[in-house]
Amino acid sequence: MRRGGRSQQFPALPDYQANASFGLPFTAAGITYYSTLISPAYRDVSFAIIDETGPLAIIQCDIDNGGPIGRFGMPIEIWQRGEPAPAQDRQFVREMMGELQRLALDLKSPILIRTSSGLDPGGFLAARLADMGGEPIASVRAVLDLSRSDEELLKAMHKGHRQDIRWGADHLTMRLVDKANPDEALFDAYRLLHADVSGRVTRPMESWQAMFGLIAGGEGDLLLAYLDRELVGGTLVLDGGDRAYYASGANRRERFDKGISHYPLFLACIRARSRGRRLFDVGETRGGSIDRNDLKQIAIGRFKSGFTDSADTSFIWTVPAKTP
Questions:
Q1: What percentage of the chain has pLDDT greater than the value 70?
Q2: Burial classification of residue 13, based on how many CB atoms lie within 10 Å of its CB (0-12 exposed, 13-18 middle, 19 or more buried)
Q3: What is the torsion angle, in degrees rounded to the nearest 10, for the CA atoms of residue 128, residue 130, residue 132 and residue 138?
Q4: What is the mean pLDDT of the segment spanning 17-43?
Q5: Where in the chain is CATH 3.40.630.30?
Q6: Measured between alpha carbons, how far is 33 from 104 in angstroms, rounded to an integer?
Q7: Strands 135-145 and 111-115: what pairing?
Q8: By Cβ atoms counted within 10 A, which residue in 14, 83, 118, 312 is the most buried?
């Protein structure tokens, strides 16, 4: 949206998402992947705020089947170029939220948006969201600092995690699918394992093809774990900006007494560092989308939090669609 002008749709803009603080893999290939997971009612409503030098901010957002305005079911996360002065920051927030509010009224849908110290360093966005009647929910994510050495990363983990990692290093055979080895047969083995462990096919074939495209294009990798020549686990990682994200995993539950999922995830962290990633986001551990009454989600959150002694905190806001 040029200051005083109209919004410009995202597909016509360069891909600046790699610079995002919470840089989820929303590159062109990432957008293709996530688009395969949503309904035919999906509608992209992304826009930019620009001046004579180009985009000041990319606001990637969409709506799917009457849900909130977010990004592929997740909260909107804002990237701003450079370090604007506070007055410019306030103006940016007013313009951005004015456009999102217009969309919310047109679509009759609330807005889902995330704030944090990294995404909103001046706190202007959080203040504006509160003024608009937004309701925040705290979210905690386990995030590893990959500038730490292997030994430092291990020391920051829970004792049980360290033991399981050492067991996995001694007993598991690992095979990799990445840009250097885009092995479709190995990737299909993971797809079949995922369906077997889940007890059903959880996503369309198009999404698996798009996922393989991301990995083959160098935007992540897949680690397969074998025990006694049997495929017992798979760990999928996707890159975005300076972060690598633990995207999904499938492990044979009857082998959980061996801690088969810990070593592959630790190895994924080491590999992410070699690809130039600064942080490894294991995922949400408390708050946010985690149902406090869902024992399985709580257990998964504990598994993730055991990989580090630090965390990222943010707030996810739901802002109603209403005239100010």
A1: 87
A2: middle
A3: 110
A4: 67
A5: 147-277
A6: 25
A7: unpaired
A8: 312
Cβ atoms of residues 215 and 187 within 8 Å: yes
HSE of 68 in the Cβ direction (CA atoms, 13 Å)? 17
Please tell us whether the domain made up of 147-277 is placed in CATH 3.40.50.150. Answer: no
- Give pLDDT tens digits for 156-209: 999 999 999 999 999 999 999 999 999 999 999 999 999 998 888 878 888 899
- Rg of the chain on CA atoms, in Å: 20
In this predicted structure, the answer to whether residue 120 has a pLDDT above a threshold of 80 is yes
**Secondary structure in 3-state letters for 191-214:** HHHHHHHHCCCCCCHHHHHHHHHH
Q: Are 202 and 195 contacting, i.e. CB atoms less than 8 angstroms apart? A: yes
pLDDT surpassing 50 at residue 280: yes
Structure tokens, 54 = 């180009």
pLDDT for 290 equals 75
Question: Is the pLDDT higher at 89 or at 311?
Answer: 311
Which own/partner pairs from 91-95 qualify as long-range (CB within 8 Å, at least 24 positions apart)?
A: 92/49, 92/56, 92/57, 93/124, 93/125, 93/128, 94/128, 95/1, 95/3, 95/49
User: Parallel, antiparallel, or unpaired for β 135-145 and 79-80?
Assistant: unpaired
Predicted TM-score (pTM) above 0.90: no
Rounded distance between C-alpha atoms, residue 92 and residue 155, angstroms: 42
Beta strands 62-63 and 47-51, pairing class: unpaired
